[in-house]
Write a structure and sequence with these properties.
The chain is an alpha/beta fold. The protein has a domain of 180 residues: Undecaprenyl pyrophosphate synthetase. 41% of the residues lie in helices and 13% in strands. The chain is built from nine helices and six strands. Strands 3-4-2-1-5-6 form a six-stranded parallel beta sheet, sandwiched between helices. Helix 3 packs parallel to helix 4 and helix 4 runs parallel beside helix 6.
Length: 261
Amino acid sequence: MSSAATATNPLTGEGRQRLAEIGLTREQLPRHVAIIMDGNGRWAQQRGLPRVFGHRRGIQSVRAVTEECRRLGLEQLTLYSFSVENWKRPAREIRFLMRLLRHFLIVERDELAAENIRLAIIGEREGLPAEVLAEMDRTVEMTRHNTGMTLALAVNYGGRTEIAKAARRIAERVARGEIAPDAVDDDLFAAHLDTAGMPDPDLLIRTAGEMRVSNYLLWQISYAEMWVTDLNWPDFREDHLAEAFRAFAGRKRKFGGLIKP
């Protein structure tokens, strides 16, 4: 399991200045932040606009938060972009979301490369439009050798689906005699998840005030700290992220044990 630690990304003068502004040291920051970006539709409806306007505005928050996490030297940011349950939404909204995702991958590709950010995708490929998969693959390949922060997008993702898939993979290996049943432990199971090789999130942020994890990274967030804000995602910016980081820095993380006096 991961804990707050100095990230491997070099911290620039801009990053040191930003840390001073928010009143934290690098060691107090989470290593990996996962975000449930909720409230796009509500943001739009509150303004008498179609829901898709909220999704479009939410991209501004994605850019702002990604840049801030990179600036502060975090190792990974994981964004819940489209869940397996989101297929239940109206077909028109789904088509818009797929177009928006494809556009994001194309438009942000050069910026990700310039900022030394590596893109990763977790979730199920089956069911996604071919044109979206193509742009995913191009951007992942283009940024594969970047050594800075990892930006992971959870697309067509569900925690239960991921866990069930990992269990099937392990069962198949056991059936083939590649591993013994008693060799299956936490580490081996984690190695069969979509997030294999990634640190577990230290901090889970949810916008729009909902108090649930919505089938997101169920295995990985076992010991993550949670921070919830009533703000809808399109209104979430760097100062709100700093508020979450300060709250995280004040937590006492025991990982099931006791804090020594």
